[in-house]
Amino acid sequence: MTDTEQEVHAVAERSREAAAELAPLTRDAKDSALHAMAEALELRAAEIVSANATDVERAQADGQPQAMVDRLTLTPARVVEIAEAVREIAKLPDPVGEVVRGSSLPNGLELRQLRVPLGVVGIIYEGRPNVTADAAALCLKSGNAALLRGSSSAFTSNSAIVEVLRAALTDTAVPQDAVQLVPGSGRDSAQALMRARGLVDVLIPRGGASLIQTVVRESTVPVIETGEGNCHVYVDAAADLDKATDITVNAKTHRVSVCNAAETLLVHADIAEKFLPRVAAELIERGVVLHGDERVTPLVTTAVPATEDDWSTEYLAHDIAVRVVDSLDEAVAHIRRYSTAHTEAIVTDSQAAARRFVSRVDSAAVLVNASTRFTDGGEFGFGAEIGISTQKLHARGPMGLPEMTSTKYVVTGDGHVR
Amino acid sequence: MTDTEQEVHAVAERSREAAAELAPLTRDAKDSALHAMAEALELRAAEIVSANATDVERAQADGQPQAMVDRLTLTPARVVEIAEAVREIAKLPDPVGEVVRGSSLPNGLELRQLRVPLGVVGIIYEGRPNVTADAAALCLKSGNAALLRGSSSAFTSNSAIVEVLRAALTDTAVPQDAVQLVPGSGRDSAQALMRARGLVDVLIPRGGASLIQTVVRESTVPVIETGEGNCHVYVDAAADLDKATDITVNAKTHRVSVCNAAETLLVHADIAEKFLPRVAAELIERGVVLHGDERVTPLVTTAVPATEDDWSTEYLAHDIAVRVVDSLDEAVAHIRRYSTAHTEAIVTDSQAAARRFVSRVDSAAVLVNASTRFTDGGEFGFGAEIGISTQKLHARGPMGLPEMTSTKYVVTGDGHVR
């Protein structure tokens, strides 16, 4: 093992010990710790903002784009928001201990399946330093030790936040090592984390497609893939065109940089002539560029011709790929081929079409007559979200606190033998 | 890609297409297919037994141990049992479509989280050819395409069984490719399966520790670890010694070769002098060798001294490691250090001790006053079991049909936008 690996493994070992202490704590004990963390963030906001200034200056000196600098910047008001978010997490129900399934077996054994923490949760994330406090709080509330690995661009900010959170835990029942930052900010420390199988129970990458793909490829620790969203809106032959227009415009333009924004519009041939010019006008008015196939471009003269790449691109920008299909099944086949299986929506007044689309489309979320923008832990009423899983194992779709747990069977007898 | 990789990927691609056709099928359609499979197994039992004879002869010629040859051997009666097991699976409720969670959101959106199939399930297994039909039936019932990779020693038997099952699907709604055998029986074909990320949704290894570890290490497809069981029985100071004796003897000797057999006995110092000679006499009578620490050997003169290795060994034989501990917490610490987190039992009449043990021990199943042998899908009332997961993600403990599914959110609105 390299020095970095040894260092990261030693830290992970401490996370593991903290996780064992944290797991049996009551909700009250965990909530007190969360409130202590929130208070400390507010009291020591000046320190955090000052540490952040170092990162911001370096980013500016490095000529980083302004949007990136904005995401990185913390203000006293922003730190108060971060503290408030921690308090909101304290308000949520504790998933640990929930009885998922239970029965009395024929032989009198009492069987219960309980939610328990996962253990050590590694989070690898980019940019925004607010994720540091947010991820730590979500882990703590669900009884997990958080082992955090932010981007090197936010290393000074993240170190300051973690130092404040750990100090706040001193007088609580939660061990300080329940919140740790992976030491170092180089690639090798991230890699050591990805290889800490047996010490880290799960890795959740939060960030862009390339970060997520790197973690999936290089990690021997189990990974929950999140966030890549090549989302589709399919406007059926039986769609109400007012609703279809509203939903398409909202899904594409409400916020273009997020994973649940629409990236491709599929339109049934029967209504293409009426619908496409209409939706195109609304989209173009909002600065959207349409990338259309050869049946779209004659109807929308400003559309640029779509290439094969457009169908699989997550633009995260004011662009949308547009294709005319001859049937619902053709739309489904297109989605199966190109989608990242995050979110797809159908707009239709036909019950049969909705039913077929819902049963045939294999994505984390399938929406009927609603914008793709609703796939979100907050919108779903989960209160908080650690990410949106696009994989099928363990968790799929928006992940709230229950998705940050495993289960354990507890079986009680009275001397039972087989 | 090598030729083998191309071949295996082409087969996996067909599994993928079959999975898409299989996913929306009704329970009736799937059950009809299962009954057709069961009938075909019975009708063509002679062919299967004759193919099996080839494998058996080769195993004998290779000088394989008799126990291995026994596990490999099929008789007409055994094939009927296999068919019966398929019919039992048909009787179980269909997990697909179950609403796991649902609510009406404040804005009127209707949210439902439904169980859906995982997609393509790869099973890598050893020895027994009955697993072929069993795994195929469990996959089919849960709406998944089965991509099977048995051991090379059973290749002729497995090929015959799969050929019978596929032929039986001809006149059903289930596509034939829902059941496929990975081509080839060499190491390279198993490896190609483990690398078919994106084509295969999950790999479940069924077999010994070394098979499972190989799959975990080499696979880029997500794996569910199963079966390794270094299970502990802890006899507390407050134990009823009659029950403690019965439970220890049952956990160790009821069936020594299974993953839920006990491998280590931890005894509280307060009762060691009374309990150890008593339980040792019962165990020794049944041919068990005790491997004791330095506080055990003076009390059980026939015990051999335990080495560090004994604490982490899954004997699967008539051996048990025995240690005296000074407290429940010392027992918990021992378990945390050496256990594979499969199953641990406590024997105690103290409510406080039971509560502490259950909350502190982090294993898939924790039993109070019951034998470790109860950790089993059948005993838990699941009707069938694809394996016992010893990992924390996705499924933990005995895996029934619901554990072979993922979920999907279906959100229905009426033109909803954000």
From TrEMBL, chains A, B:
Residues 4-283 form the Aldehyde dehydrogenase domain. CDD domains: ALDH_F18-19_ProA-GPR. PANTHER family: DELTA-1-PYRROLINE-5-CARBOXYLATE SYNTHASE, GLUTAMATE SEMIALDEHYDE DEHYDROGENASE. This is Gamma-glutamyl phosphate reductase. Belongs to the gamma-glutamyl phosphate reductase family. Its EC number is 1.2.1.41. It is found in: Cytoplasm. Its main location: cytoplasm. Pathway: Amino-acid biosynthesis; L-proline biosynthesis; L-glutamate 5-semialdehyde from L-glutamate: step 2/2. It is an enzyme of class 1 (oxidoreductase). It comes from Lipingzhangella rawalii. Keywords: Amino-acid biosynthesis, Cytoplasm, NADP, Oxidoreductase, Proline biosynthesis. Catalyzes the NADPH-dependent reduction of L-glutamate 5-phosphate into L-glutamate 5-semialdehyde and phosphate. The product spontaneously undergoes cyclization to form 1-pyrroline-5-carboxylate. InterPro entries: Ald_DH/histidinol_DH (IPR016161), Ald_DH_C (IPR016163), Ald_DH_N (IPR016162), Aldehyde_DH_dom (IPR015590), G-glutamylP_reductase_CS (IPR020593), Glu-5-SA_DH (IPR012134), GPR_dom (IPR000965). One of its GO terms (molecular function) is glutamate-5-semialdehyde dehydrogenase activity. It catalyses: L-glutamate 5-semialdehyde + phosphate + NADP(+) = L-glutamyl 5-phosphate + NADPH + H(+). The keyword Oxidoreductase applies. PROSITE patterns: PROA.
